[in-house]
């Protein structure tokens, strides 16, 4: 008996008590884990975990947001910014006119975006327990590529309405047929010597603005 026959034999024995007509993908699966550990303050936990992933966390009210966005772009020396079609126009109201606005459109290729300094978006949902921001290509987020190529991403999270405790709760809000981008801090990787390199698969700097009352 060879290894293949041994493995297949074990599979047959494991499936011996399964009814012949049963389709596993249609059978309900009991999930006994908690959907949330119910943190006392999800927004504070989100801020803590975002910072732990080296994102820069800021807080602002609606009135303070335009000035903050302008300052964050100025600190990066941004001379151009990608603007999703559905981004609230007031968010960039205090950004100087000399900062070139680049529309999120089909003509915005990866080569073109590589020459753009920053991008400003909203988000679909933010997960407190993992410090993750999820984009789903909504009107205020735009195409996936505009948040992967520019070196600087300013992501505005409305709190508390866009914040959930956990990944299972986030999945309830998200449409799996949409292009989902899960972001936990600036893009980073390590080589074989564990030297951290940022900006390889996405933005080198991530500014997250918690927009509240």
TrEMBL record:
InterPro entries xrefs: FTHF_cligase-like_sf (IPR024185), LUD_dom (IPR003741), NagB/RpiA_transferase-like (IPR037171)
Record protein name field: Lactate utilization protein C
Species of the source: Streptomyces sedi
Segments forming domain LUD: 44-211
Record-linked Pfam families: LUD_dom (PF02589)
């Amino acid at each position: 008996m060879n290894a293949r026959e041994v493995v297949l034999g074990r599979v047959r024995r494991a499936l011996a008590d399964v009814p012949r007509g049963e389709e596993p993908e249609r059978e309900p699966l009991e999930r006994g884990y908690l959907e949330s550990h119910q943190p006392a303050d999800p927004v504070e936990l989100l801020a803590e975990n975002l910072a732990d992933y080296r994102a820069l966390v800021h807080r602002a009210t609606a009135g303070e947001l335009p000035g903050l966005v302008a300052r964050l772009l100025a600190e990066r020396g941004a001379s151009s910014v990608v603007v999703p079609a559905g981004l609230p126009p007031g968010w960039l109201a205090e950004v100087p006119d000399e900062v070139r606005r680049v529309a999120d459109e089909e003509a915005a290729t990866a080569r073109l975006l590589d020459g753009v300094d920053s991008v400003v978006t909203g988000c679909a949902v933010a997960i407190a327990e993992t410090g993750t921001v999820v984009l789903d290509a909504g009107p205020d987020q735009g195409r996936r590529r505009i948040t992967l190529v520019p070196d600087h991403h300013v992501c505005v999270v409305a709190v508390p309405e866009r914040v959930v405790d956990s990944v299972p709760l986030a999945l309830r809000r998200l449409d799996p047929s949409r292009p989902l981008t899960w972001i936990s801090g600036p893009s980073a990787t390590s080589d074989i010597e564990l030297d951290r390199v940022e900006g390889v698969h996405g933005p080198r700097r991530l500014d997250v603005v918690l927009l509240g009352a």
